[in-house]
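User: What would this chain look like folded?
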Amino acid sequence: MGATELILIRHGESAGNVAATQAQLTGAEVIDVGLRDADVPLSGAGEQQSQALGEWLAGLPAQERPESVWCSPYLRARQTAELAGLAPFRVDERLRDRELGILDLLTSAGVAARYPIEAQRKQRLGKFAYRPPGGESWADVALRLRSLLRDLDDAEDGRRVAVVCHDAVILLMRYVCEGLAEAELLDIAATNSVRNGSLTRLVRPSGTGTWVAAAFNAVEHLAWAGAPVTEHSGENDVHPR
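Assistant: Here's the prediction, encoded as C-alpha cells.
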C-alpha cells in the first residue's frame, strides 16, 4: 500500500510571478527579479494566500487534515508551508520547479529574439518533449516525480499527504498519478493556469492503483478568508499547444 490522498498546493504568489507577468505585459525580453529562481520569496499577496490556506486547513475536521507534508526546496514553497502552519515538513529536491536552462528569466518575446532556433524547436517538438539547453522538458520532470512518488508511498502508507510545490509539478503529478496521456495533460494545461495557493486533491482510498482527481485548482478557501486570488502561469506560454 501507499498514501491514500495527495493534497497538492501551489505556492502563494511570488515576487517572480509579479515580475514575469509585468514583463509579459510590457513586451520586455527579460524578467527583472534579481534573484535565482530558488531564492524568490512570496509577494505580499502570496503571504495572505498562505495564511488563508492555513486558516482553512485548521478548520477542517481532524480526519480531513494532512498527516504529513512534503515540500519543494524553493523559498516561495517553504514560506507557503510555514505561513500555512504546515511545518514540520520534508523538503525534497524532486519537487522543485522545472528548470529552464538558458531560457531562464526570458519572456516568450525574449526567447524569440535571442534564441529563435530554440523557439522553433519548441514549436516543433511541443511543450511536453521540448528540453531547453541546460534545462528540463516536462517529460524530465515527470520522470523525477515517478521516483518521488515511489519513495512517498513507502514512507506514507495509509496517510494523507500535503505536497507544496509549483504549477507545472502539479500538472505533471496529475499526469503520472492518473495515468493521463500526453494529449490529455496538454488539454488540461491549455485551459487551466494553476492558481497561486490553489488546492488539487488526488485520492485512492485503498492506497494502491490509479489516483482520481477529487478537486483541481480550487481556490474557494482563499475567497472564504478574503485573500486575493491570483493567476500567474509559471511557463513562458500559458497555452502549451
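The first helix runs from residue 15 to 26. If you want, I can go into more detail on any region.
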